[in-house]
Specification:
alpha+beta; 30% strand; 11 helices; 453 residues; disordered N terminus
């Protein structure tokens, strides 16, 4: 196993969990690939046992990083007026959490985007003076205008793209729907920004569109969440910035090589959240493709790889796939570096017990992926008035959450349905549901728990 070794940079390891045994004629091979990085800071994945949320570097040390904070300043941020004040305070708290020497900028977002600090298309370098100047600029922000998030992202991309840094990250706050540009404009902005920087997105209050905010985070490999009470923004922004400051390696790719005749069904991240990476493949040579994973610090993530192999007879075996962690050469001139790798195997047997046993990790994450799906389907059915369909889907969600030990999701579901019997998924839709509770369940529906030991 190859490991990436560099002072104060994470070392990566890959572990493969699977039942490699197939019955005669069997073709589908499933594996859970656990990727762990150690030796950096903590980021938005699953922190390792005993890790702390602070980077592994001392003051002023660490990889070169640039962060752009995008603050919604549309007219709706004045209703109530405390919302704009909380947004200013939260952004100030995030600026305080910047590591010394980090490049940064603040963008005010309305139907246009304006870099309000430091201005003129530049980035500031974080120190005591620039932090104070940035917070002075924040105090002058006021609400007015519309919402065109694509313009905010494109400006952030221009600012970040001009910086010679290892890590590029955005933090985006919105309180409303993206009503002042066409959906294809936002999609075009996300397509052009994907792979250039990562971005965490937050919706404050309850007047924003969940699928817009989660779509931004998914496209830019960041986190999405709701802050229903604006008073919670400062703590959330501080955590986000601490996580961003803990990132040590950017642009890590999961490379999947498959032999001739093997077909890839899907590649999904399944922990800490469910994210389908199948359609994000870029070709990387003969029978190899790269799937983006974003930036890493001290954390562990799980991926579900499913491939179809050619039929084979009893006693035969083959390499079904090779999974590697790849770090590109920053200059683009040299060969990418293999950080670690693992193998997915297929062995055909006439032992029915061996070939029909489902690997516990595969079974668990198959259920977690279904949990995320049925929550979305159930909430969509509820919104469209299909209450029978909503009851069935959300009942299945309760059953899956209970069986897998996903207590956080179970608690969120209990605010939308009355649980009669969790084990069988018997529920009743609540007659009245707070909008914040429904939006929280939808926003956090993709969060998963790991396999119970």
């Amino acid at each position: 196993m190859a490991n990436f070794s560099k002072s104060n940079v994470p070392q990566f390891s890959v572990e493969v969990y699977q039942n490699e045994f197939l019955p005669e004629g069997g073709r589908e091979v499933n594996a859970i690939v656990t990727v762990t990085s150690t030796g950096g800071g903590t980021t938005g994945g699953i922190p390792l046992a005993g890790s702390t949320p602070s980077p592994a570097y001392g003051p002023g040390q660490g990889p070169d990083a640039a962060v752009v904070l995008m603050v919604d300043c549309s007219g709706s941020m004045d209703y109530p007026p405390t919302k704009m004040r909380n947004a200013r305070d939260a952004t100030a708290a995030a600026i305080d959490a910047l590591r010394e020497g980090t490049r940064f900028a603040v963008v005010a977002g309305t139907h246009v985007a304006k870099d309000v600090y430091p201005g003129n298309g530049r980035l500031a370098v974080a120190d005591q003076q620039t932090r104070a100047q940035a917070k002075d600029a924040l105090r002058k922000l006021s609400a007015g205008g519309g919402t065109a998030i694509g313009t905010w992202l494109r400006l952030a991309d221009r600012l970040l793209g001009a910086a010679e840094v290892d890590i590029r990250h955005g933090i985006l706050l919105t309180d409303g729907r993206n009503e002042h540009e066409a959906p294809e404009d936002l999609r075009g902005a996300l397509d052009s920004c994907a792979g250039r920087f990562t971005c965490d997105a937050r919706g404050v209050g309850t007047d924003w569109e969940v699928k817009e905010v989660t779509g931004i985070a998914a496209a830019l490999l960041g986190t999405a969440d709701i802050v229903a009470d604006p008073a919670g923004l400062a703590a959330d922004f501080t955590r986000m910035m601490e996580n961003a400051m803990g990132k040590e390696v950017a642009d890590v790719a999961l490379r999947l090589w498959t032999p001739v005749g093997v077909e890839i069904r899907f590649v999904k991240q399944v922990a800490p959240t469910v994210a389908d990476l199948t359609g994000r493949r870029t070709e990387a040579g003969p029978r190899a493709g790269d799937y983006p994973t974003g930036s890493w610090g001290d954390e562990s993530r799980d991926y579900h790889v499913c491939v179809l192999v050619p039929e084979a007879g009893i006693g035969q075996e083959m390499l079904a796939a090779r999974v590697s962690l790849i770090l590109p050469d920053p200059s683009g001139a040299g060969a990418p570096q293999t950080l670690s790798q693992g193998l997915v195997r297929a062995v055909w047997t006439d032992d029915m017990v061996a070939s029909t046993s489902i690997n516990p990790q595969v079974a668990h994450y198959t259920g977690q992926a279904e949990l995320a799906q049925v929550i979305q389907q159930g909430l969509d059915a509820r919104k469209s008035g299909d209450f029978d369909g909503a009851t069935a889907k959300l009942g299945r969600a309760v059953q899956l959450a209970s069986a897998s030990g996903n207590q956080d999701t179970a608690k969120l579901l209990s605010k939308v349905v009355d649980v009669v019997d969790a084990a069988t998924g018997t529920v009743r839709l609540k007659a009245k549901v707070a909008e914040a509770d429904e939006m929280t369940l939808e926003t956090r529906s993709t969060k998963t728990v790991r396999v119970k030991k």
